[in-house]
Amino acid sequence: MLKARRQGETRVEPAHPTLPKRHPKQWGQAVVEFALASTMIFFLLAAVVDLGLIYFTMQALRVAAQEGAVYGSYPHAVKDKDGNITQLVIPYAEIANRVYGAAGDQGNGFANLRDLDGNGVDDLTQNLHANVATNANGYIYVENLFGFDTSNLQPSCVGNVRGRDLQAGGSGCWIRVTVRYEYSFFFPFAPAFGNTVRLQASHLMPIRSQYYTTP
């Protein structure tokens, strides 16, 4: 049986349990751990977002390359005053215009196709597409190829010989359009390895000539 409290005895209960005091060194350690963890988290977030944007940018470049190749797969005829075909040509300048216009008149989208070099200036005003058939390192490069093995194609299909290559329905003739783009990283942590990266997409199409001439 519990003993009764003696008359006049007073017992004071603590208002709350006593909390252990944190040493200042422990606070500093927590701040350092948070700084290291948050830096890694932000770096991973930047990488994930940029990888996603790069993926969608590549899709836009593939569509632009395909648009140019499909248009370029139909050669244009050059005729004399009597209406006879003298030559079939690949419309290089128009192919470049098709690439630029693949995302609309303003080139808007994940990739600004009107500013492939990423300098903020409309490419059409810089004439960057002037040498699409000769500049292998250009932002738009169009190749006129020949061969029956797509892994070993050689330049090029001629268009000025009757009954051959482009004037033979385009048999063995191919066109490949390559589009390059200077991608600027979105997040500030990503440019640790550089401010931009060059992306590239290509599309290969057989020439679909509608012209058959005889030698």
Automatic annotation (TrEMBL):
Residues 28-69 form the TadE-like domain. The keyword Acetylation does not apply. Coiled coil: none annotated. Residues 1-14 have a biased composition (Basic and acidic residues). The lineage of its organism: Bacteria, Bacillati, Chloroflexota, Chloroflexia, Chloroflexales. Residues 1-23 are annotated as: Disordered. Pfam families: TadE. It comes from the Bacteria. Keywords: Membrane, Transmembrane, Transmembrane helix. This is TadE-like domain-containing protein. The chain crosses the membrane at residues 34-56.
